[in-house]
Design a protein that fits this description.
alpha+beta, 2 domains, 19 helices, about 10% strand
Amino acid sequence: MRGSKQLLDLSKLVSLIKEIDHRLAVHVGKAINLSLTLRNWLIGLYIDEYELRGSDRAQYGENLFSELAQRLTQQRVSNCNRRQLYRYLRFYRLYPQIVGTLPPQFKSFLPQTVRTQKVGTPSPRFNVPPKDLIIRLSYSHIDLLVDIDDPLKRAFYEIECIRGNWSVRELKRQIGSLYFERSGLSKDKKKLAELGRRGAETSEPKLAIKDPYVFEFLGIKTKEVMGESDLEDALLDKLHDFLLELGNGFCFEARQKRILIGRNPGYVDLVFYHRILKCHVLIELKVAEFSHEHLGQLNTYVTWYRKHMMNKGDNLPVGILLCTQKDHALVEYALAGMDKRLFVSKYQLELPKKSDMEKFLREQMKELGYGG
């Protein structure tokens, strides 16, 4: 009878809502990650199909990936630069057995040649069942696994990652620490495995949904991907307006500009092009005390811009690092090996003075309720 059931109190209500939130977050996270993984696998399949049977494939030859990436970018298809297209193709070729796991709604995407033929599968002796692979691992996990050439080693990390529910960062750490190689040399493999799992960072459903691949796949703006603190967001808004109001040649280009450095994404807080200095100005804001890691990160971004974004007639990019605390502000300019003395002198005239930037930061933080 209803009257005999336990009455709902506030603590019980909180517990029930928390459970609902957790379970549905897991469900949503799995659905999104599954769609993204299958999307990338299908892209790889079609590239492979084109390389085998494309009617005009000879026309592009080695330029195929560059041409394809350019056209997809023009069509605003996310995460399809030249390098990523290669990775999707490798993903498909390493895991052809995924074809057997496709839900009915995805099978309609298969080319006719694949529907009518049996796709080869690797030896089942080591590999995780493909259904477990695509459901239990996000594409960011798989993106790390496709770099591993040795099938046994790759299968080892598949199994350990699923068994330990590792986060992407944890999988990357374990690969970097040569866990597979150490396991092969260890006499007590069980004890090593226990030590490896102890303190390992596990994957939470809401963190999985915040995967940068997922955000871009869903078309969410990069600013939202980063999840900046309220203070940092507010300061960046003010800083953007402050620099444009100076009228000294700042032309706004991007906020939270995503760049790919090797396999690791980076995000530049603010990017301007300075029409007088004829160079990019990159600005990084850290709501923290200055550290050399911050300066190293900014120098990396500046160096990347120098290599990939400079056009003919451009001067070397400049980076500005802003570090804040409640009671002080620090401004550091990163020149990234700049050796043109005349240009250095000119930027000192055209860019805001460090004292002005520090004063601006102190005033804004006080206005936002963080004054010392």
